[in-house]
Design goal:
Elements (H helix, E strand, L loop, with lengths): L1 H18 L8 H13 L3 E2 L2 E2 L24 E5 L5 E3 L1 H5 L3 E9 L5 E10 H8 L7 E6 L4 E5 H6 L3 E6 L2 E2 L9 E3 L12 E7 L22
Parallel strand pairs: 3-12
Antiparallel strand pairs: 1-2, 3-4, 5-6, 6-9, 7-8, 7-12, 9-10, 9-11
Amino acid sequence: MYVRKALFLLVIITLLPTIFSGCGLLNQQSSDQLNALAAVEVKNYEGRDLSSILDFHENSISGPQKIDISTYLLKIDGLVANPQELTYNQVLSHKPYSKVVTLYCVENWAVTILWEGFLMKDLLDAAKVDGTANTVIFHAVDGYTTSIPLQTILDKNMILAYKINGVVLPPERGYPFQLVAEDKLGYKWIKWITRIELSDDVNYKGYWESKGYDNTADVQK
């Protein structure tokens, strides 16, 4: 019996790194890199204190993703007349904008961050969105998806962020691009975006929405 217990404990200890690999733990290298960025990030913007890059909770569905930027393409397709396949540098060639926006998570934590990125409107204008499109579906490298009404994105001047508090997004925070889904709960702030799909499906439900989360995700709710 004691031998069986010892073997069971040995198996559990061996599997622990695998069990927790997607559940919020970061390896030492990731932790060191985030600490290095935290040392140089902007901490105050126009008299407003900012949260730190370290204040986020890791809650992605498959753990932090690492994208090979040398082969990366951002696709913009669906109901568009001019589909796009943009390299990272091509996206960066658009005019950048900065804004301080608070991300509110359903897990009852929040961060107020200086985001820098590119207007979704500019990216969509280049793709020439069809008049029948009313929904934007975002796809991430790990299979995560979510959607936001097209008009909401335009009305809120939402941006596709590539910097956070003055530093380039690290892999743990969504590199190369994260959506700044202003006034929406955190599960709409999709990271590691690889595709932006224009659709006429107003009822599209992404990863968490298909599991019962509110599809509008308005912060005031």
